[in-house]
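Q: Sulfatase N-terminal domain-containing protein, please. Structure only.
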Amino acid sequence: MRKRRRGVLALLLTFSLASSLAACFGGDDGPPRRPNIVLLLTDDQDAASIAYMPRLKRLLTDRGVSLSRYYISTASCCPSRATLLRGQYAHNTKVLTNAPPNGGYAVYHRRGLEQSNLGTWLRGAGYRTGFFGKYLNGYPWGIVPNTHVPPGWDTWVSPVGGNPYEQYYYTLNEDGRLRRFGRAPEDYLTDVLADRVDGFLAKDDDRPFFAYLPVYNPHSPATPAPRHRGMFADVTLPRPPSFGKPGTGKPQELRRLPPLTAREETAWAEEYRKRLRSLQSVDELIGKLIDRLESTDKLADTYVIFASDNGYHLGQHRLGPGKDTPYEEDVRVPFIVRGPGVPAGKTVAGIAGNVDIAPTLAVLAGVSPPGYVDGRSLVPLLRGSVPADWRGAYLLEHGPAPKDAGGNQADRTLEAPEPYRPGWGPKTRTSLYLPPYQAIRTATHLYVEYATGERELYDTVNDPYQQRNIADTDPVAQRLAEQLHRLKDCAGQNCRMADR
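A: Structure for Sulfatase N-terminal domain-containing protein:
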């Protein structure tokens, strides 16, 4: 009963804080206006790369709050995006991977998750909603017609054909109408999306708006706009202490990786520069968004949020280009907010993650999130402080996918490409098998349990690059294991109780 009472009090406090934020931009006459919300999401962007985005710093970071401990619960595109839209961990959305049978748009659509998510909540509350960019991996792929517009969106602009990752030669579904684009400079996808969202923001409409803009940059092949191709020629590939080093006590699969080669490092350095170049169009997009909001006198009433769907590793721990691991490079990403009532230039260290985006935006919009939501509202953190009873741990997941009727691994994307035999010799980076895992991240530790039975524990204060596995020697492992076991199958309010 006491825990339930604390939960109710916390919820009331969250709504009170949201009302306080709203009052910051309301007039003296009548009820406060509901805020506008713009959410810009990049694809595979590591936290460090924001240093190469000057407009982001000047217009958002210096004018708002940055969350320094913002994590992605499943560091893979589709599971992360499903979590963002629903406010649920992957073990509850069941979107575990990027493709069927246990992931991708196919699972999201089949389970009816389109019927209740951030878009439907806000549109149902009277918001004008717009979607511009990458939806979920596998949309539409014959599951629905190419003209399908998911529920909850007044304006819909999303690629349905071609290869939008290349930024050229793609087809857009624009409110149920298909339009093909070619290779002309003006066909660069990020610029086209910038133009579409600009028109949405400029529209004369008394309703508050929510614009969700998930761009494709800097996802591989990280194609830059023509005007940015020559930039960063002298920038070198970062080599943190974990670069090329597996560390001690890593899982068997990582210990089998060979040393990095000069050819790999040269190729990855160019990939790194391409990623930075591709982000410049996103940086320009931020400037365009702010300019439009200012010119229409809407900036003071608008929350502008910047985040990424997951991070990216490039040589750390001897890993080739990629994501999916529980390590810092893959799970910690930027999260920056400016808006009414948000202090300028402040960094807040409360633990947060993508499971919190949906309930946060719902509360800001004056909407009560559904009971199935696992995350919590970040409104207290947006005010610049961390409550004393705030979350102490965040759940990280990579599978495991459920078994089929015969007891076999149902999703081949999570199955070892060869029998898993500890003690085997070296292997190539491209054949790396990352076992399914469940983990928790606290302010001081990362604890991981793999499906193979292997465990990892890192003291992230004294070992920030996660090089010394102390799972077998530090008694903290037992306490974190117990908390992980409470979190790994949690749902709804139980998640918010188990993560303290």
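A: Brief note, in case it's useful. Residues 262-295 form the longest helix (34 residues).
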